[in-house]
Write a structure and sequence with these properties.
By secondary structure, the protein is an all-alpha fold. Helix content is 84%, strand content 0%. The N and C termini lie far apart (62 Å).
Amino acid sequence: METKGVVERIRTLLARFPEDEETVRQLLVRDVSFDALCNEYRKVIKLLDAFEAQVKQLRARRAWLEEELLTRTEGYQPH
């Protein structure tokens, strides 16, 4: 296994469980199913990060829309 690929696959896992780094590294080279779990975990974390960023953008847009709607329903329109 190449070192860069190994590090990339376990980066998120080690961020969550840094105390288990040595065990993770050993399992990664000895257990194919553990490697697959690490890969899936990395993908799920990546998806969650993307969703969280999107949720943040949507909340900001909602706040802007609510302010805009409130302003207009109160009869005031900014120039």
